[in-house]
């Protein structure tokens, strides 16, 4: 304790006894809280309540389902994926189909009738003319006509062709791509079954018209995702010593007889995009014999694949004249039935695809071919090459 000028004692802060109140300065007051306006409080509570109500609703922002009825067997719209349910579809119109009655929205149908009325909007995807995989094994009735031999392919009334409708979809990218066509299916039950089961779905399968149960094998192949073709027995050099089989088209036959033999092959099954030659070195080099066949293929909306085995083939020129989608094989991969030789041919196809953008190889459903191609297909994807159906490399003269 010290004394000031007036000799009064002065108590220092450190010398003040602990716990005693300080009486020499006024007590500190707590600051007053500003009152929140009543209206603001109500607004905040309303927002919080609304948010809690939305949060407690199951899937609050979900748009109600509108179901569309789809006729899977009609094949009217392809490439449009619609989830079907067992419940009754929600009607999309409030007026009769003929447009009479009270005003209301027009009908929008995914599976329109053959001759839709004027107020019906038909939905089509121009970039996907192919069929949905769910119905790929079912023939499109608009692409068939009945004959004494069986169902023949025709162009649909709206211009659709089997060459596009039955084509397997692919990515459409610009990278290197390879199409491989394996023929001879249907001749051996075990061989056909093994080829369909082992080969990737991107591999195109070709059926021999002399085979058995082709309708059943076609459905199996299409259900597994394969694009298919029909092989056409054509006269080779040294015929009949070398014989492609029953109902071969020949140079010496009358055009009408060759057309009938063509019809026989075409009626053996359905759902194929086109035909490819089986042998035919002599026939494909004869304009008088070959031109009527190519014109018939064009009229029926089919494509043509030349296996490339004959340098004298007129197929490319005749296909252009007849509006037939066309491709030519670069290599026959299994002329030697040896795994090493087949792999070497497949390596050549890869080189061609990288240089030109695409390549086409053909082969037969021998056990060694099926096993080797299956093994190669798994590896080639890792090297940045896409395996595509043969329709993906077809040139279509009439459609650019």
Automatic annotation (TrEMBL):
One of its GO terms (biological process) is carbohydrate metabolic process. Residues 91-114 are annotated as: Disordered. The keyword Membrane applies. Pfam families: Polysacc_deac_2. The chain crosses the membrane at residues 35-56. Keywords: Membrane, Transmembrane, Transmembrane helix. The keyword Nucleus does not apply. PANTHER family: DIVERGENT POLYSACCHARIDE DEACETYLASE SUPERFAMILY (PTHR30105:SF2), UNCHARACTERIZED YIBQ-RELATED (PTHR30105). This is Divergent polysaccharide deacetylase family protein. It comes from Aquibium carbonis.
């Amino acid at each position: 304790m010290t004394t000031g000028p007036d000799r009064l004692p002065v108590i220092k802060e450190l010398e003040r006894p602990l716990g005693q109140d300080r009486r020499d300065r006024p007590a500190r007051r707590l600051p007053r809280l500003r009152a929140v306006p009543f209206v603001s409080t109500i607004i905040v509570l309303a927002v919080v309540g609304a948010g809690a109500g939305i949060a407690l609703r199951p899937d609050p922002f979900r748009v109600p389902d509108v179901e569309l009825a789809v006729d899977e067997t009609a094949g009217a719209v392809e490439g449009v994926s619609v989830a079907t349910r067992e419940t009754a579809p929600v009607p999309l119109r409030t007026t009769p189909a003929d447009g009479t009655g009270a005003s209301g929205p027009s009908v929008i149908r995914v599976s329109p009738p053959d001759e839709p009325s004027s107020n019906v909007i038909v939905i089509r995807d121009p970039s996907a003319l192919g069929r949905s995989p769910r119905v790929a094994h079912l023939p499109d009735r608009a692409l068939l006509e009945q004959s004494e031999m069986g169902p023949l392919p025709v162009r649909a009334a709206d211009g659709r062709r089997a060459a596009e409708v039955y084509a397997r979809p692919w990515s459409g990218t610009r990278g290197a791509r390879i199409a491989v066509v394996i023929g001879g299916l249907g001749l051996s039950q075990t061989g056909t079954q093994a080829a369909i089961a082992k080969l990737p779905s991107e591999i195109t399968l070709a059926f021999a018209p002399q085979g058995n149960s082709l309708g059943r094998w076609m459905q199996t192949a299409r259900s597994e995702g394969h694009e298919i073709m029909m092989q056409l027995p054509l006269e080779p050099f040294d015929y009949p010593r070398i014989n492609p089989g029953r109902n071969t088209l020949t140079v010496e036959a009358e055009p009408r007889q060759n057309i009938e033999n063509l019809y026989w092959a075409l009626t053996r099954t359905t759902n194929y995009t086109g035909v490819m030659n089986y042998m035919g070195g002599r026939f494909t080099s004869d304009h008088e014999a070959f031109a009527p066949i190519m014109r018939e293929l064009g009229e029926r909306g089919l494509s043509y694949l030349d296996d490339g085995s004959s340098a004298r083939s007129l197929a490319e020129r005749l296909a252009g004249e007849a509006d037939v989608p066309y491709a030519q094989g670069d290599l026959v991969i299994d002329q030697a039935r040896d795994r090493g030789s087949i792999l070497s041919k497949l390596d050549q196809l890869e080189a061609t695809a990288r240089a030109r953008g695409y390549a086409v190889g053909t082969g037969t459903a021998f056990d060694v071919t099926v096993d080797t191609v299956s093994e190669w297909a798994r590896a080639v994807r890792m090297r940045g090459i896409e395996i595509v159906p043969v329709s993906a490399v077809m040139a279509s003269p009439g459609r650019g």
